TrEMBL record:
Annotated Pfam families: DHquinase_II
Alphabetical list of NCBIfam families matching this protein: PRK05395.1-2 (NF003805), PRK05395.1-4 (NF003807)
UniProt family annotation: Belongs to the type-II 3-dehydroquinase family.
EC number: 4.2.1.10
Signal peptide bounds: none
The protein's name: 3-dehydroquinate dehydratase
CDD domains in alphabetical order: DHQase_II
Amino acid sequence: NRVLVLHGVNLDQLGRRPAAHYGTVTLDRLERGISEHAAELGLRVQFFQSNHEGAFVERLHRADDMADALILNPGAWTHYSWAIRDALEIAGLPAVEVHLSDVNAREEWRRVSVIRELCIATVAGKGPDGYRDALERVREALVSNEA
Ligand code: DQA
């Protein structure tokens, strides 16, 4: 089973963002950790990151070509991009939303997620470990689909 892991705006800057919320891990290291967990779970992963909303949307349009499920952390787009919400609907794949920080314990505007209703699960506030939870949720969803 193939999982596409998408990171949105500013997530390429991990390592330079407030450590209190995001820790010190870089995107490169985060992705390597995700690859290791995925291998343990028997999942194949691919990664995508963009700071451009249109590129992110177009990646979602093509997602079903090569992925069976999605894990996405759209960064700040999470809170207001109806375009990404609609593109996720077009992708039509099981998706898990992940946030490194505890978005519910920060500013009020971060409590809103325009993608939540399209996701089978949301994981927030667990740092890099949250992606392991997300991979497990994705695997459960794919296995129950096969049954
Ligand atoms: C984030 C939380 C968002 O509110 C923020 O804009 C980000 C990262 C997270 O992973 O905690 O860029 O998605």
